[in-house]
Structures are given as structure tokens and as C-alpha cells.
Specification:
It contains 8 helices and 9 strands. The protein is an alpha/beta fold and 225 residues long. The chain has one domain: Alpha-Beta Barrel (TIM Barrel). Strands 1, 2, 3, 4, 5, 6, 7, 8 and 9 form a 9-stranded mixed beta sheet that branches. Strand 1 (7-9), helix 1 (22-30) and strand 2 form a beta-alpha-beta unit. Helix 1 (22-30) runs parallel beside helix 3 (84-94) and helix 4 (109-123) packs parallel to helix 5. It binds SN-glycerol-3-phosphate and magnesium ion (MG). Residues 37, 39, 101 line the site of magnesium ion (MG).
Length: 225
């Protein structure tokens, strides 16, 4: 049975530092957080980096599509963008549990899952869980990581959630807090499946979710709890 820390810093704790950054990992740890979530995408030269959007403008000093630029080109305009290797290294040094969310650029779903899965299989010795909105990506990663914990990541729990869990060999569900209602919580509890909800930045919502039985919440504000 997978064990979840109750508070997971979303995008490394995006409110306290640049999202998906090493500074975010350090800030989450300083805030007393034991767990983080981050998004992983491939550069043009196939290096997994921490990035949420397919384009760089919103969160970095760079311009353009992540999939169109090499790691060196991205680092030249914003050296703060971390590789997966740097982020996992820091998580292991800080003792942080990690949710690695595969965030493939369109058209790179299988490649992203396979590359990240292979890298994690060789180098990741920490604790955590792997997820993706892309089933293709998640299945490609699962192929490389037969023993790892996977979670089904969805907005609303889909009708065929049990079939999806079983295809992926997933042991948990991550869903949008907006859709975490009593019926959903009941269905998951009856099947013995732990669940976590994103993204929660206020105490009242967190209390509602924990009362419903959430194992964890993802938050941009790891300093709030
Ligand atoms: O993995 C949970 C959450 O991060 C999913 O949404 O768009 O912030 O990656 P997003
Ligand atoms: Mg994410």
C-alpha cells in the first residue's frame, strides 16, 4: 500500500519560488513540507527537464517551444530551469517524497514516458509516485518501471477508472479537488484506492477533502499548513 505524505508541494511549491525549480524544492523543504510534485517534459535533444507548459514564456526568461530547443539553448536564456536529474538529486538530498508527473509535449507522449521511465529506473532511489494525464506516456514509463508506484491522474474520475487503473497497474488516483465529491470518495474508498486532490490553497477546502478521506492534497502554498 502506497503511503502519502498529507501535503504535497505542487510544482515544487509554485507560490514560494519559480514553479518547477530547485529554489522551489528548497523553499518547500524550508516550509516543513515532506513531499513535492513536479512536471517533466523533454527538450529537443531528449533531456527531461522540469516544465509545465509546452512553451517557455510564462515561467522562464526564454521564448519558444520546449520541444524545439535543446537543453543548452534553454539554459542559455534561463539557467534556473532544472533537469530531472538535478531535481531528483535534490529531492534525495533533502529527503523529499516526489510525484513525477510526465508532461509530454503533443506528439511526444510515448517518447517522454520511455525516456523518463528509463532514467528513473536507473537513477531514482527515493520514494514517490509517477503519473500523467497522458495514458500513452504513463504506459510507456510503466514498461520501463515494472516495480514503481503509479497513480492514475485525471480531472474528474472517469467512468472506466477501474479499467484504467488496471491497465496501468496504478495504486492511487490523483484528481481535481473540484471534482472530489462524496460519491467519488465513496467509490474509491470501497475499492481501497487512496486518492489525492489538486490544487488546494485554502484550509477550508483542505479540511473538506481530508474529511472525505483524501490521503493528500497538492498545494502551491506549502507554507500554509
Ligand atoms: O499532478 C497534479 C497536478 O499537477 C496536475 O495539474 O496542470 O498542475 O500539472 P497540473
Ligand atoms: Mg503537475
Amino acid at each position: 500500500m502506497i503511503r502519502y505524505p498529507r501535503i504535497i508541494a505542487h510544482r515544487c511549491g509554485g507560490h514560494l519560488a519559480m514553479e518547477n525549480s530547485i529554489a522551489g524544492l528548497l523553499a518547500a523543504k524550508r516550509a516543513g513540507c515532506r513531499a513535492v510534485e513536479f512536471d517533466v517534459m523533454l527538450t529537443r535533444d531528449g533531456v527531461p527537464i522540469l516544465m509545465h507548459d509546452e512553451t517557455l514564456e510564462r515561467t522562464t526568461h526564454c521564448k519558444g517551444a520546449v520541444a524545439a530547443l535543446t537543453l543548452a539553448e534553454i539554459r542559455a536564456c534561463d539557467p534556473r530551469v532544472p533537469t530531472l536529474a538535478e531535481a531528483i538529486g535534490m529531492c534525495e538530498r533533502l529527503g523529499l517524497w516526489a510525484n513525477v508527473e510526465l508532461k509530454p509535449a503533443a506528439g511526444h507522449e510515448e517518447e517522454t514516458g520511455a525516456v523518463v521511465g528509463r532514467w528513473l529506473a536507473r537513477h531514482w532511489h527515493g520514494q514517490g509516485v509517477i503519473s500523467s494525464f497522458s495514458e500513452k506516456s504513463a504506459l510507456a514509463a510503466r514498461h520501463e518501471l515494472p516495480e514503481a508506484a503509479f497513480a492514475l491522474l485525471c480531472d474528474r474520475l472517469p467512468e472506466d477508472w477501474q479499467a484504467r487503473l488496471s491497465r496501468l497497474g496504478a495504486v492511487a488516483v490523483h484528481l481535481n479537488a473540484v471534482h472530489a465529491d462524496e460519491a467519488t470518495a465513496h467509490d474509491l474508498a470501497s475499492a481501497g484506492i487512496p486518492w489525492a486532490a489538486w490544487t488546494v490553497n485554502d484550509r477550508a477546502t483542505a479540511e473538506r477533502l481530508f474529511t472525505l478521506g483524501a490521503a493528500a492534497i497538492f498545494t502551491d502554498r506549502p507554507d500554509l499548513w
